[in-house]
Amino acid sequence: MTLSSVPYRPLLDSRQIEALMQGRHPDSFAVLGLHRQPGGSGLVARALLPWARSVTLVARDGDSPPLMLQRLHPEGLFEAVVEHRQQPFDYYWQVETGHGTVALEDPYRFASAIRDEDFYYFSEGTEEFAWRKLGAHPRRLQDIDGVLFTVWAPAALRVSVVGDFNGWDGRQHAMRRHPASGIWELFVPAVADLAHYKYEIVDASGHLLPQKADPYGGSMQHPPETASRVQLGGRPYRWGDADWMARRDAQHRRPVSIYEVHPASWRRREQDNNRYLSYLELADELIPYALDQGFTHLQLMPINEYPFDGSWGYQPVGLYAPTIRFGTPDEFRHFVDRCHQQQLGVLLDWVPGHFPSDPHGLGRFDGSALYEHDDPRLGFHPDWNTFIYNYGRGEVASFLLSNANYWLEEFHLDGLRVDAVASMLYLDYSREPGGWLPNVRGGRENLEAIAFLQRVNERVHARHPGVMMVAEESTAWPGVSRPVHAGGLGFGFKWNMGWMNDSLRYIARDPIHRGYHHDELTFGLVYAWQENFILCLSHDEVVHGKRSLLNKMPGDEWQQFANLRAYLGFMWGHPGKKLLFMGGEFGQRREWNHDRGLDWQLLQQPLHRGLQSLVRDLNRLYRSLPALHELDCDPAGFQWLQADRRDISVFAWLRRGENPRDQVLVLVNLTPGVHHDYRVGVPAPGRYRECLNTDALDYGGSGQGNLGGVEAVSRPWDGQPCSLLLTVPPLATVVLSLDAGAGSAAST
Fold first, then answer.
1. Between 329-341 and 279-292, two packed helices, what is the crossing angle to 10 degrees?
2. Distance (Å) of CA 515 to CA 510, 570, 671
3. How far is 371 from 396, CA to CA, in rounded Å?
4. DSSP string, 621-685
5. Phi, psi (5° rounding) for residue 175?
6. Closest listed residue to residue 260, CA positions, set 296, 308, 224
7. How far, in whole angstroms, is CA 655 from its chain's centroid?
8. Backbone angles phi, psi at 97, to 5 degrees
9. How much is the CA Rg of the chain, to the nearest whole Å?
């Protein structure tokens, strides 16, 4: 059969032609491509290719001669009637351009690659793998390789894929709409790997919106550029951490010491234009450093793509895109893999509480309040000038639930620290009276956010046993780290913000005044087991005029270091897992600056090196003594010995492990005075080894101590059957443990 054309007579009326050329046509699939001719025999072929000089239809069966299309519009709309064929057939366009002739597959000849039922769970709010269905994914349809673009934009009149493969012209790749689900899709053949793209959207009123990055895009351009990037992939990443993943389990009875890191400023290449370290360089430098310091986990501040460096990642636009600042997604996988192979866990800051108003982001994505609430009393954060997710909308809940699973599934992360949970829980968070709306029960609780957090925690723990879900929650909300079935939010751990605020306020005081504020250090034990706590000295405490940890300390230089050493000893001996922000381990002097690396040159000075050595030894001791970590979340692991010595600002307590023989004495002196022959009770006879003394000469201290250990005497004290006579160093923490096989106590 041959292809031939009847005398040409345009079949589209002028209104449809203008709608196509202005990018306002609501259904390009109805008119572009190859269709049966309405009201007549044969077929009609149409192509919208603004850059084409001519377009020819070529049948793939080879039995019919090519058919040149007629130009309907000077900007590149072409049409022809195929008179002698009644059924659509396989074809391609032969296009003459200003640079030659190319063969081009027509996106409008492919049937839909998705079904509305594929998005049932997405619409319901229970989809856990939405990134596999939405976004840009390589596909092969009818033996043709291309990329399937899929996006949720139910209120849009038209959605197009624009990119460097079509000159960013939204008229060329208008997408197919699925009204039932609000999903738009288009299969685009022959898209190059790492091609840049966005979505061009016309809202329901016909207004052209700013081009939007892909909410599910797995990679983005380097800021300040804002496009998403196609990832064709290739061979899947080959993980080498199977042993780690198989052994991963709950951390409540294990040592957890977290080194919080801002990857952009841990270290910079100052000699190379002050550039960031890459994921690969961080693997080579950060991992061995953290291991040498004895930390069990790294916690990375957000690495999802974010447009503004000064947000530190907490205003994400690409929630599914590891930031390109440090390398590719596979290079980030390599970093995590290397951590696991060297027995180092990796946690990630996750930000489901809000998103920025950048025009290429989620705000008013399809012209409507799609991801956010329409009412600013619900949908806008006055503190941060950001939008608040609408957790009650199923598709939004699926977006976030899937994102939590994405980081754990695709990058083998060991947990998520969930940012700003309090801002999610309370409808009146940081709002003036009248500036918020109560829930359906008349209360201030955000019931939809609560249900969302519970669902995320339940599903994450069910799918990834052993991961840590950690809440940054700054109020007294009950049951944050209790199971959902027990009425809790379902997190595994909660940051202890109360302990952090009280203890930092105390330690910043001159020692002469500390006795009047003794309760600031003891009060944390009143509620220490209401939650599974992480004691946190995070990035938030060393910015915005709060001063560095070292500069919070009172006194001259020696006293500042002594105070900080004693305080860190107090922290490591206190019940609760540990978190320390980078730089705190060696006494960073200035406040943290996200645009500069840490002041590593300070380690040339003995006091800074001594502090770094102390943190290394604290971690070693914490990991090696079960009494310091096994019952962190259990009141059976702690007993006060001396909680009321406010006259001399001394504190003493016992830590216990699961084995009754695992007992450790922690003694803290927070004044510059030395106490000789100081008596403190102990539960058993024998020799108590001085495991750690923050006043040791090696750390920069004065060298006061107990010559390696003390023998218990059979004199009851502090409610214990035995006691020790100790030298208590100035501004210091001392840790002593009962030697194995200890014998009888000596007489007093």
1. 20
2. 10, 16, 9
3. 6
4. HHHH-GGGTTTTTSGGGEEEEEEEETTTTEEEEEEE-SSTT-EEEEEEE-SS--EEEEEEEESS-
5. -95, 165
6. 296
7. 33
8. -120, 180
9. 32
Q: Which of 127, 472, 630, 690 is catalytic?
A: 472
Length of the chain: 748
Residue 248 has pLDDT above 60, yes or no: yes
Which residue type does 290 have?
A
Q: Give the pLDDT confidence of 594-640 residue by residue, as tens digits.
A: 999 999 999 999 999 999 999 999 999 999 999 999 999 999 999 99
Predicted model pTM: 0.94
- What are the φ and ψ backbone dihedral angles of 34, each rounded to 5 degrees? -115, 125
The per-residue pLDDT for 250 is 87
First to last CA, the chain: 114
Percent of the chain with pLDDT over 70: 98
Angstrom distances, CA of residue 270 to CA of 39, 263, 303, 596: 72, 15, 22, 9
Amino acid of residue 43 = L
Across the beta sheet with 228-229, the strand order is 158-163, 196-202, 228-229
Which residues fall within 8 angstroms of residue 462, CB to CB, at 6 or more apart?
none
Measured CA to CA in angstroms, residue 282 lies from 50, 261, 327, 361 at distances of: 46, 11, 11, 29
Report the C-alpha dihedral over residues 546, 551, 555, 561, rounded to 10 degrees: 140
Angle between helices 447-463 and 394-411 (to 10 degrees): 30
DSSP H or E stretch at residue 304: strand 304-305
CA angle centred on 747, ends 744 and 748, rounded to 5°: 140
Q: How many CB atoms lie within 10 A of CB 643?
A: 16
Tokens in use for 419? 């940012």
Query: Would you call 742 exposed, middle or buried from its count of C-beta atoms within 10 A (0-12, 13-18, 19+)?
Result: middle
Q: Hey, which residues does 720 pair with through a beta bridge?
A: 717
Beta-sheet strands, E only, within 518-588: 533-537, 577-581
Structural contact between residues 531 and 494, judged by C-beta atoms closer than 8 angstroms: yes
Comparing 22-26, 461-465, 542-546, 604-608, which segment has the lowest mean pLDDT?
22-26
DSSP state of 405: H
Of 655, 667, 572, whose CA–CA distance to 617 is shortest?
Answer: 572
Cα pseudo-dihedral 432, 437, 442, 447, rounded to 10 = -110
106 catalytic per annotation = no
What SS3 class is residue 4?
A: coil
Which of 419, 448, 585, 695 is an active site residue? 419
Instruction: Grade residue 1 by pLDDT with cuts at 50, 70 and 90.
Output: very low
Q: Give yes or no: 284 in active site.
A: no
Both tokens of 143, joined, read 């033996």
Structure tokens at 195: 């091609």
CB 120 within 8 A of CB 398: no
Distance CA 633, CA 209 (A): 51
What is the C-alpha separation between 465 and 463, in angstroms, rounded? 6
Query: Which of 682, 669, 441, 452 has the alpha carbon at shortest distance from 565?
Result: 669
3-state secondary structure of 2: coil
Strands 297-300 vs 345-350: parallel, antiparallel or unpaired: parallel
Q: Over 60: is that where the pLDDT of 271 sits? A: yes
